[in-house]
Each structure stands twice: as C-alpha cells, then as structure tokens.
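User: Hi! I'm working on a homework problem where we have to compare a predicted structure to a textbook description. Could you give me the structure for the chain below?
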Amino acid sequence: MKPRYLDPYLAGIGIGVVLLAAYVLVGRGLGASGGFSAVVASATVAVQAGDPANAALAPYVQVPVWRDWIVLELIGVAVGALLSARLAGRLALKVERGAHLTADSRMLFALLGGILMAFGAKLARGCTSGQALTGGALLSVGSWVFIGTTFAAGYLCAPLARRLWR
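Assistant: Happy to help. Predicted structure tokens:
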C-alpha cells in the first residue's frame, strides 16, 4: 500500500493559518529551538537551585516550563504528528531508507543531521521554523536571507540525497 500524503499546497495554507492563529491567540510566532532551551534551563535551575551561576539562565525561566508557549507548542507538534500518521495509515515503527542505506547508517545520518541542525539553529539564533515562518512573516531581512540560503543548499544537496534513496 502506497502511503498517503497531504497535498503540499494545502499543507502550506494550513501552516500559514496556524502561524496567523498563533499571533492572534498567543501573540507569538512559531519555533522549536527555544522550547528545548527553556526545558534545559528549567531543569538546570531545578537541579542547581541556589547556585549564583544560574542568574544567567533567568531570561529562559520566566514562567514554569509546563506553561511556556514554545514547550506547549512542541508537545502539540508531537501529538499532531502522531495523530496525522495514524489518520493517514502511516503509523509504524520502521526506519524509512533508500536501497543503498542500511538502517544503522540511516540512523547515523539522521543523528548527525540533527546535531548539525541544532548547531545551526544556535548560530542562526533560531530554528528553521522560527527563522523561516516567524521571521519571514515579520519580513526580517536575516530570515529572508536564511530562507534563500536554505533553498539553495537544498537544491545543491538534492542530487546526493536522491542517489541515497534510489
């Protein structure tokens, strides 16, 4: 059975509606990397309570982590992804890979890619969703440079990725 995917244009409209709703209802855009920073900062403060070095973490710990907008957004993304996969009949424990990749090498590439993305998100002061969606919607010049660079890098790397997935 061939997996079913949402039409990309409809998905794009949906993301735009969600971004608009986030601004209207919460007053903030979308993003992900800030949620991980909030969880790590809160955990550090909880473990090292009373340490004066934690004063630098104060900007990240303005509200309890379970009430932080970005953390709640990440939980919603995970639940939504699970629900979407279930509704589309694609919910399964498997490693999707090309014929030229083993499951172990696919997992290694995924781990390395995740580490590079996290490093890049810190350098760029925001993740892909925060930079492209939120920054792009706010017409931030840096975000538009990021969007152009991301698309250019994607087009340059696509032949390599396509070879691995054939």
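For your comparison, note the following. The chain has a mean pLDDT of 84. The chain has two domains: 1-93, 97-166. Good luck with the assignment!
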